[in-house]
Design brief:
Layout lengths: L1 E6 L3 H13 L2 E7 L9 E2 L2 E5 L14 E4 L4 H13 L3 E2 L2 E2 L4 E2 L4 E2 L4 E2 L4 E2 L4 E2 L4 E2 L4 E2 L4 E2 L4 E2 L4 E2 L4 E2 L4 E2 L4 E2 L4 E2 L4 E2 L4 E2 L8 E3 L4 E4 L16
Parallel strand pairs: 1-2, 1-5, 2-4, 5-6, 7-10, 8-11, 9-12, 10-13, 11-14, 12-15, 13-16, 14-17, 15-18, 16-19, 17-20, 18-21, 19-22, 20-23, 22-24
Antiparallel strand pairs: 3-4, 24-25
């Protein structure tokens, strides 16, 4: 088993630890975290060695691999690229109970949880998180640094652009686009494209804030996002 460290001593880090320990071929040996108050403590039975300041020392300890388990998309991607520049190898955590089509394309440094399903010709970009029970149906195009929470369901040919965030249990109908940096609130049903940097929510989903067109509670269904 190849030793790796997990950056992020929190809930998502615990998920990454559990997946890695079940899946192999990596063995988590420690956490790193930007919160100095956590340094020198333990989390999940593993020591928290420090933050970015110790990253350069890891190869001297025989550790080349790291995974960043931070929920904020921009922070996760930024830390990953910083750690790569420090000479570390970015690894993925893919649960053995995930179902992935042989024709799917999976980018580097991803987290894929148990019972996640990635269907034929789907593409998952680097630094993305697909939580437990997510469904990426045929020909989905998931961008860089995306976060899909548990039980998100994306119908066929959906495109989710870089840094988008889709909350637990939300659904997107076929052929729709969720723009760069957009946020879809938990339980929403998206029936229209979502503009970049826009937050939507509801059934059907309507714009709550951001540059997209705002709709009142009196809007008709065909005006929804």
């Amino acid at each position: 088993m190849e030793p790796v460290v997990i950056y992020g001593a929190g809930g998502l880090g615990a998920v990454a630890q559990d997946i890695l320990e079940q899946a192999g071929p990596y063995q988590p040996v420690a956490f790193l975290d930007s919160d100095r108050g956590k340094h020198g403590r333990e989390y999940g039975g593993l020591p928290i060695w420090g933050g970015l300041e110790v990253a350069g020392e890891l190869p001297n300890r025989g550790i080349k691999g790291v995974i960043v388990a931070i929920g904020d998309n921009a922070t996760r991607v930024g830390l990953a690229e910083t750690l790569r520049a420090a000479g570390l190898q970015l690894v993925s955590a893919i649960h053995p109970l995930a179902t992935i089509s042989r024709s799917a394309e999976i980018g580097e440094h991803v987290m894929i949880g148990p019972r996640a399903t990635i269907c034929v010709h789907a593409r998952i970009g680097p630094h993305s998180v697909l939580s437990a029970g997510t469904i990426a149906d045929h020909d989905n195009d998931i961008g860089r640094g995306v976060f899909l929470h548990p039980a998100v369901r994306l119908a066929g040919t959906v495109k989710v652009e870089d840094f988008a965030w889709i909350g637990i249990g939300a659904s997107v109908i076929p052929g729709r686009r969720v723009g760069r940096g957009a946020r879809v609130q938990a339980g929403s049903v998206v029936i229209r494209d979502v503009a970049p940097d826009t937050t939507v929510g509801g059934v059907p989903a309507t714009v709550l804030n951001g540059p997209g067109p705002r709709l009142s509670r009196w809007s008709t269904p065909d005006q929804a996002v």
